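Q: Focus on the shape:
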Amino acid sequence: MDENRLLRDLEAIAETLSITVQYDDLTGGEFKVKGGLCKLKGKNVIIMDRRMSQRERIDLLVRALTQFDLSSIFIKPYIRLLMGDDSRERDPGKTEAEAKTESRSSPAQRR
């Protein structure tokens, strides 16, 4: 898998959701932080330490993006698999947690 392409695709998903992805130098403070999702002035922002590896950036973006409802936007199948999301079975009225719990149950239990 081309990690550059994957990172660009994940950043594009964030942009579609109006989430800013920001790379900053997060050293020098009292706390050791690599980044994460936060709200700044009411807007969702994913902040990452610019020294993170490509793989760490991808992992952080995946963790942050899966906290949002992704059912209404197109996401390439390989990214959906990476996120562990099969939105074809998802009811848009359910939360991510409810959908994940339901997807673990058998088809007979869902009826």
Residues 3-16 form the longest helix (14 residues). The helical segments are 3-16, 54-65, 77-83, 96-104, 107-110.
